[in-house]
Structure formats: C-alpha cells, structure tokens
Design a protein that fits this description.
Elements (H helix, E strand, L loop, with lengths): L14 H16 L11 E6 L5 H12 L3 E5 L1 H4 L7 H11 L2 E5 L3 H10 L4 E3 L7 H15 L6 E5 L4 H13 L2 E5 L8 H14 L3 E4 L2 H4 L5 E4 L11 H8 L17 E4 L11 H4 L6 H22 L3
Parallel strand pairs: 1-2, 1-3, 3-4, 5-6, 5-8, 6-7, 8-9
Helix pairs in contact: 1-12, 2-12, 4-5, 6-7, 6-12, 7-8
C-alpha cells in the first residue's frame, strides 16, 4: 500500500509506489469480476474550475469500486470565501473518506490537505496534474512494455502537465525532452528536482526551443493547449508565439513514422494540434483519456486502504 496520506505531487512518490499504482491500474483495467471494492466509502469531488475527464473518471471509478460520490461545484464550495480552507477541510473530513480537488492555486490544495484528516488527491492545480501524468506513463508502458530507452517529447507550454510529466518520467527512467518557446519553459525548481531523479535512473531530460530538433527519434509526441483555463486572455498573444509548435503533418516529417501522438485533452483543434493528426492512426489520445479511469481507481483504492479510519 502507499505509505502516505495524500497524492499532491509526484516528486514525493517513490518508484516503488508508482510501480504499485501502475500495477494495480493494469489489474483494474482487466478486472471483470470486480475484485476490488470500496463499498461504503464516499469520495468528495471539489472543483474550482470546469472538468470533463477528471470529474467523470473519478466519479465513474468510485461507482465501479462500489463506493459513492458527492460533487461540490465552484458555486457551492468557494474555498476561502464562504469559509476558510482550513475549516472546510476539517468539516469535510468528518463526512467523507477521500477527496479529489481541482483548485486554481496549488497553495490552496496544499493548505486543504494539511488540515484534512482523510486522503486528498490533486485533481489539477496551476502547478501540477499528477493523475494525468500517471495515466500518461501507464499508457506509454501499455504501448511499449518498457520505459528504459523510450523517448517522450512534449511540445508546447511549460505548464502543470509538463511539470508532472517531468516528475513521472524521471521517476521511472523514461527519457523526456521538451520544446517550448523562450519564456515558456518549465519551472526551474521542478526541472532541477526532476533532473536529479533522472540522473539516479540513468534517463535523460533535455530542453529545446526548436520542436523539429526535439522530436527526432521520439517514440511519443505530447502536446497540450497553448493557453490554460486561467490564461484565456493571453490566447491572441500566445497564438503568435506558439504557431511553430503546432503538431501537424509538416512538423511530424521530422519524427519517426511510427511515433505515437498524445494529448491530455481537451484539445483546441486547429491550434496546438490539427484534426489530421488528432484523428490519425498513430494518435492514442483517447487511450490516454480512458486510462485516467483505471489509474484513478487504483489511486483511490490504495490511498483509502492505506489510511483506514
């Protein structure tokens, strides 16, 4: 079982713990007899911003594990407004068994977890998206049956998704490169920490500004939106800056023919990725989306079992 209360960021997870999550995810994906159950347990979903995959996959996953789910919308919860983050965490801990929270600020989630007596799962903050990254490396292993010698290349904004991918890849020995415009690189502290993990695992992390150089010999090419939910006002500016970072058929001429395409979704078709690539045979974006369900079920099961009241 996981030796911790919460799943806030992947930098604190050991390789053994990540392997345990991935192993159980594989079992859950194949499990037709429903051998893993959380009957009588209740998941609380706290969302300060919109969600499709995260909300539905966590909710469906908890139901499939024979547990229950309560959704708290942005209008209802209002962390730090209707009541303090500390008080909300203490109260909800009395009603629920586990909480998955999506907050604008990473500090809000950290504060909430500090005052919660039950497991708290990061369902996305402005700094990290750990459940997504775990589903991504689960998908990569599913396709390649290994991490060693496999190259993942991220093209686009150095955002929360890239931060968690850097931690996930470096923890399991997956080579990762990224291509970002100047000024849009990943956080320096995250990069330094991930580089330390990669050194221990004998894997590579390398940054580029030229996406054509970055994607050479890539086994997987990954992208995300150019402007995240709190950056919509910057989109016009970002379209100009990121125009050469679009995953399209022209760019892919610099990659191997069998390179697989990944996207965490939702996609802005015609911006960071074209329809032609998104719907191509080598696109595995919907495999990624499905695998969120299996990985999150594993996280829920392991955290609840490790933190029995």
């Amino acid at each position: 079982m996981l030796k911790r209360k919460d799943l806030i960021s992947l930098d604190v997870l050991s390789k053994k713990e990540i392997d345990e999550i991935l192993s159980l995810s594989r079992k859950l994906k194949k499990d037709k007899k429903n051998n893993y159950k959380l009957k009588g347990k209740t998941l609380g979903l706290i969302f300060e911003k919109p969600s499709n995959r995260t909300r539905v996959s966590f909710w469906a996953g908890m139901v499939q594990l024979e547990g229950q789910c309560i959704y708290l919308s942005p209008a209802e919860i209002q962390l730090g407004k209707r009541e303090s983050v500390k008080d909300a965490a203490k109260v909800l801990s009395r009603y629920l068994d586990v909480i998955a929270a999506r907050t604008f600020s990473h500090e809000t989630l950290v504060e909430f977890a500090q005052h919660s007596s039950i497991p708290v799962i990061n369902a996305l903050t402005d700094q990290f998206h750990p459940c997504q990254a775990l589903a991504d490396i689960f998908t990569i292993y599913e396709k390649k049956k290994k991490f060693k010698g496999v190259k993942l290349v991220y093209v686009g904004d150095g955002n929360n998704v890239l931060h968690s991918l850097l931690y996930a890849a470096s923890k399991v020995g997956l080579d990762i490169a990224y291509a970002t415009p100047k000024g849009y690189e990943p956080d320096k502290k995250v990069l330094k920490t991930a580089s330390g993990f990669a050194k221990k695992m004998g894997s590579m992390i390398k940054g580029y500004t030229n996406p054509k150089e970055a994607i050479k010999n890539a086994d997987f090419i990954y992208t995300d939106v150019w402007a995240s939910m709190h950056q919509e006002k910057e989109l016009t500016k970002r379209k100009k800056i990121f125009k050469d970072y679009q995953i399209n058929s022209v760019l892919l001429k610099a990659a191997k023919k069998n390179t697989l395409i990944m996207h965490c979704l939702p996609a802005k078709r015609g911006l960071e990725i074209t329809d032609e690539v998104m719907d191509a045979k080598q696109s595995i974006v919907f495999d990624q989306a499905e695998n969120r369900l299996h990985v999150e079920k594993a996280i829920l099961y392991l955290l609840i079992k490790a933190n029995k009241k």
